[in-house]
UniProtKB/TrEMBL annotation:
It comes from the Bacteria. It comes from Neptunomonas marina. Residues 1-21 form the signal peptide. InterPro entries: DUF3617 (IPR022061). This is DUF3617 family protein. Pfam families: DUF3617. Keywords: Signal.
């Protein structure tokens, strides 16, 4: 789905623009993350929970880079000790999406949100995404 693609692209591309930043500290281990996407294009909010073994000690660009996707550009990236903020624009056939987001990591917890506005075939659609995550223990 196109909405989900923009959310993933924003996370991947946002991180890939941070090559001068050292990264945000994160506690290695088994992490559980929940993403909720709301949009007028969806009949109901989309919610997905995943678990992933994280072995790195900080969130860095190398963890997320998708070198093949060139349709989005990120600007105004700001990195502090525990937060990344960004703006992005994605060009797609038949439309454009613009948005901004924030990701905050605090040791064994993280949260973030992003709002995208898409202009497709003369219609403007807003997509609100939020995600939360927590370290639930060591990797199996």
């Amino acid at each position: 789905m196109r909405c989900q693609r923009y959310l993933c692209a924003s996370l991947l591309i946002c991180a890939s623009t941070l090559t001068s930043a050292e990264g945000i500290p994160v506690e290695p281990g088994l992490w559980e993350s929940t993403t909720v996407i709301k949009s007028s294009m969806l009949p109901q909010p989309m919610k997905e929970t995943t678990r992933e073994c994280v072995t790195e000690t900080e969130v860095t660009p190398e963890l997320f880079i998708d070198q093949e996707d060139q349709s989005c550009a990120v600007s105004d990236v700001n990195v502090t000790s525990d937060t990344i903020t960004w703006k992005m624009v994605c060009q797609e056939e038949g439309g454009q999406a613009k948005g901004d987001g924030i990701l905050k990591v605090n040791g064994d917890e993280m949260s973030g949100k992003m709002q995208m506005t898409m202009s497709m075939q003369g219609m403007e659609v807003t997509m609100d995404s939020s995600w939360t995550g927590q370290r639930i223990g060591p990797c199996p």
